[in-house]
Amino acid sequence: MWQRHLRTVLIVVVVLALIGGAFWKPISVAWSLRSARDLLRERESELAVNVLLSAHEIDADHPEVNFLLARGFRRLGQFTKVVEHLDLAEGFGWPAELIRLEQLMGAAQAGQLTTSAPELYKFLSRGGDYGDEGPEVCEALVNGYFLSYQFGLAQPLLDEWQTAYPADAQCYMFRGLFFENRSDPSKAVAEYRTAVELAGERTDVRLRLAQVLKKTNQYDEAIEQFEICLGEDATHPEVMTGLGQCYHLQGQIDEARRMFEKVLVLEPDYFDAQLALGQLEETAGHPDIALRWLRPACRRRPSDTEARYSLALSLQVVGRKRRDAAAWPPTGTSGPGLSMAGAIGWAARRASAELALSEASHHFRFVADAQQAMQRVQVWTDIIRSEPRNADLRFKIGNYLMKYDNPEHGLGWLLSVLDIDPNHPPTHRMLEEYYRGQGKIERAELHGKMAGEADEAGQDSEGAPDAGGSVPQSKDQNDGR
After folding, report:
1. Model confidence at 18: pLDDT above 80
2. Which of 90, 232, 257, 359 lies 20 to 30 Å from 480, alpha-carbon distance?
3. Averaged over 110-127, what is the pLDDT?
């Protein structure tokens, strides 16, 4: 009797195992997809990608898993993986219209607006409610306009985005960024406050509010917001640095120093903390200590004029002190002359002083050149408003920003050149140099190839004045820029 019962139990266990094995895979993937959709809706793109990668290991052929992975990677700017997963999603049967829409959003986000923007605006013109894709389209277009410094075109779209989706915190995030760029911090604060009200759990939103409060000298409230962020992520370097800067601006020097040092223990190469601690020590009258932090900061970002100026000030003080200490005759000498060792030591100290002063002069000259360059950039930017498709002028702006300001700002202008003229050789050459310096060899080589092809096309057209064909256009650059 017991043997019969045992056989029955074993049969039931086997059947349940087979059923579980058959249904576990789709159930697990379905759960991951639901979680990923929620995370993407909440703009937690990195977490969404991690969830989707786990689902991809279970079912690599699932079309929606691949499609949402492409969306997540697009938001993170990893365009090689976007292309890979869109191809898989399309191959496994995901709707072609949605594939095309995602491709257009990727192009727009990368600053390629000439071809993508008209089609995306057609999508938005279908009606007042665009569904879940509406905010995605708005964000991709606004990203592209910001990247290519076409802020005038971004403003009406931001207004439309707000009207269609008044509860979307991301819209107010971008509106805050818009007003920050327009040097209107009070309006930026108002937009960020709304974003925090709608998405108080998002550290990135609250952090933007805290940063602008700091810029507008509202230190007490900024500290309050930074501390909330720190409660959500106790090791966030930008939060810790911002909090330390508020302490410094309030005169709490020891608290500020401790906060910056904590950041640099966690991330020794974190530029903002290096600069902040170097400036703190420089203003506190410790130029020798300041050099410890300002030198690596300038090596990390040689185009940063604030870091260069602070380094120059510290070097100047150190150099003068060394020069005074190496005055002739050397302190403590007696008798008619110096020993050979004493003379060599004095010469070394004098050389060290002159070297520090010479280096300071070099950095001061760079800052002066940068100030003149940025004045030119301001004039050119005003001209661009009336000549938005002037590719050569955009290249000049990008070139100067790369050298004298923030390379990321310069990158945006250079990408906007290629949106107007995909075969602009100087831009491709500069992007090749930039990406090579960033260690992105594949992108660097692609731009080097494009520069060579554009040069060859120009030479061919010069050598064949009666040729009727047009210059070959570049292929899609989503992944290459």
Report:
1. no
2. 90
3. 85
62: amino acid identity, one letter: H
Choose one of 200, 233, 268: the last residue of a domain: 268
Among candidate residues 163, 249, 201, 175, the one with its CA nearest the CA of residue 44: 201
Query: Omega of the bond prior to 156 within 30 degrees of 0, cis?
Result: no
Tell whether the model's pLDDT for residue 464 goes beyond 80.
no
* pTM metric for this prediction: 0.79
Quick: pLDDT tens for 134-155. 899 999 999 988 887 788 889 9
Token representation of residue 416: 């906007």
Task: Look at the chain and report how many structural domains it folds into.
Answer: 2
Contact 233, 203 (CB under 8 A): yes
**Phi and psi at residue 144, in whole multiples of 5°?**
-65, -45
In a domain? residue 19: no
Q: Return the structure tokens found at 242.
A: 């911002």
The CATH number of the domain holding residue 408 is 1.25.40.10
Tokens of 450: 């494009």
Contact 429, 447 (CB under 8 A): yes
The residue assigned the tokens 């604030």 is 306
Fill in the DSSP letter of residue 62: -
Domain, as residue range, for 208? 167-268
CB under 8 Å, gap of 24 or more: what pairs does 127-134 form?
A: 128/164, 129/164, 130/164, 132/41, 133/98, 133/101, 134/164, 134/165
How far is residue 274 CA from its own chain's centroid?
18
